[in-house]
Amino acid sequence: MIVLWLLMLRGIGIELRAHMENPVWRGFFDFVFCASSLLLTIFFGAALGNVVRGVPLAADGYFFEPLWTNFRVGSNNGILDWYTVLAGVIALVTLTAHGSLYVAIKTEGDVNRRARAVAKAAWPLQLLLTIVGLVATIYIRPGVLDNYKQHAVGFLIPIVVFGALAVMIYGIGKAQGPAPDVGKEKLAFVASALYIVGMLVGAAFALYPVVLPASTDPARNLTIYNTASGHHGLSVGFTWWILGMVLALGYFFFLFRMFKGKGAAGGARILRERFLSGFGNCLQPRLSSGAAFFAAKDPCILLAPNELHRFFVSLRTTTAWIRLSPKMLPAFVFAQGKLA
Prior knowledge:
This protein is α+β, with helices and mostly antiparallel strands. The protein folds into three domains: 2-228, no CATH class; 230-258; 267-336, no CATH class. The protein is built from ten helices and six strands. The protein has helices spanning 2-17, 23-53, 82-106, 109-140, 146-150, 156-174, 182-207, 231-258, 267-276, 305-315, and strands spanning 210-212, 222-223, 285-288, 291-295, 319-324, 330-336. Helix 1 runs antiparallel to helix 2 and helix 3 (82-106) runs antiparallel to helix 4. The longest helix has 32 residues, at 109-140. The chain starts with a helix and ends with a strand.
């Protein structure tokens, strides 16, 4: 329920922010979006911490946990204790650095510099928390090393994790300067993604074949064997999983291709100001019964696709159809609705 509310608050913050040109209004919904995103990251990390630590499973395979009990790891666990809070903080710092690197590869100027500065500042804390989290995991559940001892290939996972951290700081360091190296920014981002994948794969490898440990009695652990569906159910599920993954990969390919490259900061604001002030060299508005056509010309400041939505929201249009040139700049924009 907490996660559901946080997801809803994120959507509310994004939707309502642009409804009023008021600094207090926008600042409030910026805070709502930021706070809900921060707490959501912590709770997702805490959820993973619960999976690694174990939950109080009953004999029927169900469990209930209060939000917290005494913050100690034991058989009477709450959702939050010192270990799961640590997992939440690791998730927060990791995704802060990861998000900052993504912002860096998509922006220029001051926003780019600040994003790289955040990622660089988060890296030492991320390294420290990774080591502390590893030691804490072995302390509360020594059995996580069993699979690594039986299958030495598993030790490649921590090598990948710490190698990714090293590549991250290399990429961040090389990208510093007034003219950042886009290639190094992308290298740091890919390394950050590899770090996240390595951490998740490492946790799954350590727990296998257990999918949800029981903190009450190891005999009640949920494993891939006692939780598996029937053969027919698994076959149908696998078929739909393949179709779902194809759709998801296609969506992300389209999304990243659509928004490739860096976006100019403030592009929507500049174009809106020029439109409202009647700047005719860049845009030629032709107004007619609730519709407007804009013929964009070349040396003007044009919007990247990620700026178009903000532009139309700021003009309070109802619908828009956009045709993009191969360079991802609008060739023409047709907006239907009332311009204000």
